Amino acid sequence: xxxxxxxxxxxxxxxxxxxxxxxxxxxxxxxxxxxxxxxxxxxxxxxxxxxxxxxxxxxxxxxxxxxxxxxxxxxxxxxxxxxxxxxxxxxxxxxxxxxxxxxxxxxxxxxxxxxxxxxxxxxxxxxxxxxxxxxxxxxxxxxxxxxxxxxxxxxxxxxxxxxxxxxxxxxxxxxxxxxxxxxxxxxxxxxxxxxxxxxxxxxxxxxxxxxxxxxxxxxxxxxxxxxxxxxxxxxxxxxxxxxxxxxxxxxxxxxxxxxxxxxxxxxxxxxxxxxxxxxxxxxxxxxxxxxxxxxxxxxxxxxxxxxxxxxxxxxxxxxxxxxxxxxxxxxxxxxxxxxxxxxxxxxxxxxxxxxxxxxxxxxxxxxxxxxxxxxx
Length: 376
Known about the structure:
single chain, alpha+beta, protoporphyrinogen ix oxidase, domain 3, three-stranded antiparallel beta sheet, 14 helices, about 20% strand, globular
């Protein structure tokens, strides 16, 4: 959780490196912020208020029964198939479905390809043909079982397909900084750790083979793929455990424009690129619309996620290349100038962890393998 805070016209400009916030409300995170004296702010745009790209035009992501019936993304025949969702069969007992299988079964293959595939790529940089529905969208799976139909569930649970996102006044990095503040004399910043070894009751942390820290207790607060890598010495299956969770490399690119230079108002949460999009741009967030407090008036901050399977070599591309790739799409989609006033590029090796079939079982095995280690 890192945020860049810069001054623009005497006001703070917040640029997130990774997540823009957390989906709320989450009692644990909200309680932590309260204990640290940090106000929690709520997004002005719901997570579901996104746009799909259809014939180079932005169309709303369907998020209701009426939205499905009127969506320009689907043909009349495809909309009729989606409208028949309430009569769809359930999955065979005991079968764990991929996201594509689930969406195709309930709404039809066209809906899975045109709506769900961009959603999975744009949010998780992953392939709906290989990710687990129950791991990625457990609330939706539970709603199917409870109501027998997702169209019925949508009428009863307004936030099923999109909730507000929360953050801090100075970005998610403010929470990380506040957690570290009481230990400021003992906190190492910008110090990646790639290995941990326990000997004679002590934990030794390493980076590139050199020791960087030592302690009696080790708390690991990392995505599952990084956790598996750091603690690989204690996993019987070694690299196999790590590989199952490995996500594709990503880069986030934020570009700043004057509001009067962008014809489209860029209202809502952002854009999801089509599954067959030729560029590595997976999606775009309208940062100024999500948290207006983070961007001074008169400016538009657009943040793209690039990489995944669309470009496995994304980390090797220069900053200028990445900014230009995003600029090409933004010029087409919202009319933004190709050259921004300012830009920021952050690279994320390993991206978002992969939630493949059997994900929950794999995590349980991983935690079981680590459960007997002292001081962890």
